[in-house]
Predict the 3D structure of the following.
Amino acid sequence: MNEFEVIREFFARQPVARPDVVLGIGDDAALLGVPAGQELVVSTDLLVSGVHFADDAEAESIGHKALAVNLSDLAAMGATPAWFTLNLSMPSVEVKWIEGFCRGLYALAGRYQVALVGGDTTRGPVTIGIQIMGFAPAGKALRRSTAMAGDRIYVTGQIGDAALGLRLLQGGLQIPEAFRASVLARLHRPEPRVDAGLKIRDLATSCIDISDGLAADLGHILDASGVGARLELERLPRSPAYASVFDVAGWEPALAGGDDYELCFTAPAAHERELVKIFAALGLACTAVGEIEAQPGLRIFDKAGALYQPVKTGFDHFRRV
Ligand code: ADP
Ligand code: MG
């Protein structure tokens, strides 16, 4: 198969039909209709083989995750996802691999009704660049820079499992058989919290998705908002799988483990009752883990009320070691 056959066979036949795709794949550019009164919300993420996924990772999971991490960015903005483009490089045309990749990609695209509207296909090491686009009512998107002293800090779902999955794969951690599949699923098939992002848009003061670990990502909110926070370790929402290895793993997976793709957001205490209703309806956990304070810096407290010093705060591609 040559480049054009790959495009025709796998990408021109993307499954999602949207009336706002005025012109999709096949021309020099796509034409998209942004609804009146809405702002276009755009984000992109690059996944590189050997950096973001193992060389032998399952193609279907790679397809899922490449789109999931992008959807997660729109979730964190409180935006409605609508369209995406796909830049793909691969060393050769492996039909089985592309089929698997498209299965994972299109299953998730179908669930959120996001249409693939263009891209580029070249030869090279396996690299996947997705750009996602969506919209939010003008002035209403959630930002990192607007947390206020006195706000509560919330985390959706449970955190730390993706990091446990990675440590399991790398052979650095023993996890009971019964929990292995669930931590690996958290690593390979993250679930973007798109619905939660939309539902909290008018209640939250700020939001970020947890891709590099709670301490680091909350730190971005604090820096951007010019505030600080106190975090209560005991409150961090952890799964039964995490509980089973807590004695060995400690707090690090929850505080500094990446790849969870849960949302961390802030909201005034007055909105808590409303939030409880929203998350009950979503069937998703949402836990208050601390509070925004005027004094800059992140202060983490253990059960006894003592200040806790994290070993490591999060992932940084260019950290000097
Ligand atoms: P150009 O030469 O203008 O870059 P291409 O031949 O690369 O055009 O692409 C032809 C059409 O196929 C364009 O509409 C482009 O957006 C689309 N396309 C190419 N690669 C992909 C891909 N990986 N996913 C989705 N659409 C793609
Ligand atoms: Mg091209």
About this structure: Residues 204 and 214 are 17 Å apart (CA to CA).
